[in-house]
Amino acid sequence: MEVIKSVNLLKERTEQIRQSGRQIGFVPTMGYLHEGHQALMENARKANDVLVVSIFVNPLQFGQGEDFDTYPRDEQRDKQLAEDHKVDILFLPDVEEMYPNKPVIEMKVACRVDVLCGRSRNGHFDGVVTVLTKLFHLVQPHRVYFGLKDAQQAAVVDALVKDLNFPLEVVPVSTVREEDGLAKSSRNVYLSKEERLEAKEIYQALQLGRQLVIDGEKNPDTVVKEVEDFINKHTHGKIDYVEMLTFPELTTFDLVTGQVILAVAVQFEKARLIDNVIFDQNGHISERL
Ligand code: AMP
Q1: Domains of the chain by range and CATH?
Q2: What is the band of 41 on the pLDDT scale with cuts at 50, 70, 90?
Q3: Does the chain have fewer CB atoms within 10 Å around its N or its C terminus?
């Protein structure tokens, strides 16, 4: 595995790889790698000749008062994990390398951000598309891998690639969970013991919502209300949102007729957890972009 910190060196290497006719799979991350990231790496490893992973905690996508400074980091452990997962190139730039001067160009996401996390995390997705545009240009991947745990991010990236004609394929990967259903997340380390026990109820609430659709409930307001009641009854977390929207367009609707997302965000003392399920009008899991 080659560890690269320089933008110019990364560009040189990935250009060489493309020239030689090999296909590049790319997994962008913020590090503190866990089984969710590993699933993306495994998918990318299988479908491509070369696997590039980046670890960069991107300051542009953190708002004021968010956890940029305290975001969990462990470079040595991440390097070992990447090595174990047969990563070919691990890109580990520092902030000055990615943003050497004040940006002249600012990107703004126009749709798919007035809902879910976009509503409370003002400017978050502008920061996400900015860093991804830079990374896509540097890596020039054939395929990029995104986890559906961050489904709104996957929907925004899907729009970025289509709107701006990036010559690459976005591959969505199903959410990897703990045995009790809690979605794996770098931020789970912030949970207290009691909160960790309660956190599993979030997935139970989502399953309850999906079951209502399977049983014939087509009204999103009814489903949302039931899910909210369940979370309030079974956790001390504060609900940031429970929403049901079309996926990946992320628009509201009156009756479930196609692929939809049921998504939640719950604030615990130090951790804000997000999770979702994506399914069709019959409640069957369906995760197309
Ligand atoms: P992050 O390091 O949190 O920015 O995540 C990097 C990538 O890993 C994103 O595409 C996430 O959606 C994905 N990811 C994070 N957690 C999970 C999970 N539990 N299952 C699948 N993918 C995940």
Answers
A1: 2-173 (3.40.50.620), 186-279 (3.30.1300.10)
A2: very high
A3: N
